[in-house]
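Quick start: what a row looks like.
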Amino acid sequence: MRRRRLAPLLAVSVTATLAPVLATSTATAAPAAAPSAAASSAAGKGALDRYTRQKPEWKRCGDGTPAEFECATVKVPLDYQDPGGARIDVAISRIRATSPDRLGVLFSNPGGPGGPGLFMPLALAEELPEELRGKYDLIGFDPRGVGESTPVSCGLEEKEWNWLRPYKEETFDTDVAWARSVAEKCKEKAGDTLPHITTRNTARDMDVIRAILGEKKLSYLGYSYGTYLGTVYTQLFPGRSDRMVLDSAIDPERAWRGMIQWWAEGAEPAYHRWTEWVAERSDTYGLGDTPKKVDRAFWDLVEQADETPIEIDGERVTGDDIRGGMRPSFFSPEHATEVFLRVRDAAAGTSGASGTSGTSGTPGTAASTGTLGLFARAQGPGTAAEEVDDNGMASFWAVVCGDNSAAWSRDPESYRADAIADRGRYPLFGDFASSIKPCAFWDESAEPVTTVKNKVGSLIVQNEWDSQTPLPSGQALHTALKGSKMVTVLGGEGHGVYPSGNTCTDAAVTGYLLTGKLPKKDVTCQATPASNEEARRQQRGKDIVPGSPLPERAPDRF
């Protein structure tokens, strides 16, 4: 989850131990169960009874997991327009409430698209504030097409995973061919399944699971992409939505091309904040005593690397790598300065460029955290370096392209024009965000995009300086959800807020989950040094080259 300590570790360990258990824990039908009213707008009343009457066969998730962490597999329709047709598996998990004051079920999603969520109950059980522990049945699941939930694949090779590509006239035709090839491979390999791997259908799966569990409503804690999933659930099932926490929010009007472009738009104010921060500390860092001088120092280094790539930890780093790879770092000025100084030292051939361990740095030898992760090539689409299948990328494209195909032009030349224009408007990342993607060659969406406009009560939680879902994105969701309240963390850095140890933010969210009562008005909190340091610590461990398809805290996911 977004408190960040457990999620990557648990995702690896749980995935490694669950497959045999899930294979033998498929739900069975309950012949005496009453019909459920959980049918979605895509299926008539009673059409989903065969699914909502299932009785999950809960079993311990794995030998290396706690006994209370239980897993099962349920069946859902591949296509909710045809609930009597093909079925797929959805892997679910839970840790049951232990308090006599049980509050219901708390579903969760860690982000993505393409991120597994089966491990979330374990993370939440450890990270939730003491007042909440044991009050909810904690429910996790791998979204359809992901992980243990009938995983999809496009048969993509690792060289095809790099999808955030800078615009260059001499390589654009190659990029167009790459995008077309990815779309064609996906259609050939999984063309019958991918059109149904969408956020709307995952929200319907959540409602089927809710009904299977015998709950009238569900509460929810979703991060990043998970905020969009939760938002779509409130639109499709407003009467089933209880306490909905949406942390680091997606603007539903910009799903999905516009959200990727937010990365470029949001990076510019973060970059300018960094130049001001460094200029104020010119005696320490020596990069210039005005923002303009710091800006010049950065672009001089970019130009130098474009002319002669810089070798860092065995990798040749270009100017494009620097501006694209440092984008998320700029949302934490201290961390961005550490990275910049190490790249500068590498260019100068000084000792600060090495990948050796260190603690706090001095000017010219910024703090080290082992190898310089910013420019390390990632190993695969999952959370484990050993995982080399393309499930993460396949499910990512299924959602990003399939949720709203209308957002993606079919004319490759329009992407060229957008990339050139946005490189001018947003020099750090504009061309990366706006250039060609496989969605240009994707089939049309099976359904229209979800229009979000409802009065369901929800709590939106947002850091001011979030690299993946910038503050205006959260504010846009707040506007769309008429019944929502918003917690804004001024000065807050990092992607994901709750729980952070910040008394103000934790109290607002915990109070809502405990009582169901939203704050009377929007809440503004101040970031704490401890919460921002945690965000920096996580950033140091997650900086990677754009295009590395890692769903957990990666700079190319939500």
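That is the whole record. The longest helix spans residues 257-279. The two ends are 13 Å apart (CA to CA).
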